[in-house]
Amino acid sequence: MKLVPLGDRVVLKQLDAEETTKSGIVLPGQAQEKPQQAEIIAVGPGGMIDGKEVKMEVKVGDKVIYSKYAGTDVKLDGEEYVIVRQNDILAVVE
Questions:
Q1: pLDDT of 21-60, one tens digit each?
Q2: Per the CB 3.0–4.6 Å rule, which of 61, 63, 75, 77 could disulfide with 93?
Q3: DSSP string, 30-81
Q4: What is the Cα–Cα distance from 26 to 68, expressed in whole angstroms?
Q5: Stretch 12-18: mean pLDDT
Q6: What angle do CA 34, 37, 38 make, to 5 degrees?
Q7: φ/ψ of residue 30, rounded to 5
Q8: Please, is 20 exposed, middle or buried when counting C-beta atoms within 10 Å of its C-beta (0-12, 13-18, 19+)?
Q9: How many other β-carbons are positioned within 10 Å of the β-carbon of residue 11?
């Protein structure tokens, strides 16, 4: 099965959370904060959204940082994804 976003939406796959702190303390699963960094899996077509022309500025494979409380969590075929609007993406990591 495949996720195909509509409009200005983007499908993200979160990068793994750090399992140890910089000082070497190992964190259990529940203590790990969800990372806000993700890789783009799919990009919508853009187009006219709410009467405005939206050009997609990100592409599949980009690593991005997105807003902490943005998007919708989706689980598909055992994988977890986040679907966000393009304007919830704060930066592209190069």
A1: 667 776 565 444 566 899 999 999 998 878 888 899 999 9
A2: 63
A3: GGSPPPSEEEEEEE---EEETTEEE-----TT-EEEE-TT-SEEEEETTEEE
A4: 23
A5: 77
A6: 105
A7: -70, -25
A8: exposed
A9: 23
Which tokens is 87 given?
């304007």
Tokens in use for 59?
């592409």
User: Which residues have C-beta within 8 Å of that of residue 83, sequence separation ≥ 6?
Assistant: 3, 5, 9, 10, 11, 12, 71, 72, 74
Q: The tokens 């930066």 sit on which residue? A: 91
Q: Output the pLDDT for position 44.
A: 94
Strand-pair category, 37-43 with 63-66: antiparallel
